[in-house]
Batch of 2 targets.
Target 1
Amino acid sequence: MPLVTKQDFQQAPDVTYISIEEIEAANDTSLSVNASSDTDASVLVPHLEKIALIGIDFPGFADGRGFSIAQRLRRFGFKGELRARGHLISDQYPHALACGFDTVEISDEIAERQPFEQWRAATEKVLPPYRVKRAG
C-alpha cells in the first residue's frame, strides 16, 4: 500500500499493529497500535510513552472521526507517528496534516486515481491562518 508523506509516495513498510486491548500486556517500548474510528483517545494516554506509531482507521471518505482522534492525541502529548489509514482522498490531506497526522496510508486504487502531484497540490491550496485573515 502506498504511504503519502510530505515528500512523495512511499511503499508502506510492513507493520504489525496491536489492538488497544493488547497494550497493557506488551513489554515493547515502541509499539504500533491500531485505533478504530470510534476509539476514545483518552484510553491511550497512560500508554503513550510505549507507543511509536498509531494507525487510525478511516472506514469511509465521509467518516471524519479519525481527525478528531488525531487532534486529541496530539493535545495529550503524543509525539510518535500518527498514520491515517484507509479511505482518504487528496482533498482531505491538508486537514489530516493540520490535525497532526504524519502520513496517510491509502489503497493502490486511490494512488492510481490521485497521483502524488494531486496530494502535494492540495496542500498548496490551503492558506496559512495569517493569510486567511488578510484575505478577508
Note: DSSP finds five helices and six strands in the chain.
Target 2
Amino acid sequence: MNRIKTAFLELGYIDILSGKDTPVHRIDPRAKLLTTIIFIITVISFNKYEISALIPFFIYPAVMIGLGELPFYYLFRKLLIVTPFAIMIGIFNPLIDREILMHLGTLPISGGWISFTSIMLRFTLTAGSVLVLIACTGFNSVCMALEKMGTPRIFAVQLLFLYRYIFVLIDEASRMTNARSLRSFDGKGKEIKVFSYLIGHLLLRTVDRAQRIYLAMLCRGFDGEIRVNRRLEAGNREVIFTIAWSAFFIAMRFYNLPLIAGRFITERIL
C-alpha cells in the first residue's frame, strides 16, 4: 500500500511540471488539446502492419518535451506503468498471425510480430502524447479546455474530481492499512475476511468524506464550473501551432517519409 501511495503522490509531480513558464506552457490549453486529439486520431488510423510510417510521429512528443523542459525519465517511468496493458492486447498476435511477411536478413518475421510492434508503437505515441499534454498543461486546464470545446460540463467536472480526490482515497486507504498493521501480531489480520471489512469501512469513510468535501465546496461558492488562475486566450500563436502540427500529422499519414528516404538513399548508392 505504501508503494501504491508513493506512486500516486509521485503522479502529483505532474502538477508541478505544468506550472513551468516555457513557450509550450504558455500556449492556450485548447490548442494543445485539439492538436493532441488530431495526433491521436492520425496515429490510430494506420493499419496493423505499419511500423516505419509511425517513426516520424515521435517528433511531436520529442519537441514538446524539449521545449517544455519536461523530465524524459520521469515521463518514461509513468509510461512503463501502463505498458503491460498494451502488451496483453498484442501478445497473442504472433500466435494467431503466423504468415511470413518479411525477412530480416535470414530471420523470417511473421505478420503477428509486425502487428504487435505496431501496437506497441501506437500505444507509446498516444499514451505518451497524453502524458506530455497533462505535464505541460495541467489536468485542471485540460478539463477546462474540454468544457470550453463543447464537452458536457458534468463529464469534465467528474473527470477533474476523479483526478483530484483519488489522492485523498489512497491516503485514507493507506491510514487504514497502517492501523491494521499496528494492531496485528505474528502475521495475523491478513486474511481475506479482514480486508473485506477494510474495504467496507473505506467505502463508508469515502461517502462521509465526499459529503463533507461537497458541503465545503458549496460554502466556497462552487457552482459546477471549472475555474483556473490563467485566462484562456487563443491568438495567432495558437492558430499557427495547431495548423502547423496538424498539417505535419496529415502529411506523415499519407506519405511514408522513412520509406521515401530509404528509396532515395538506395537509388543514390546504386
Note: The two ends are 61 Å apart (CA to CA).
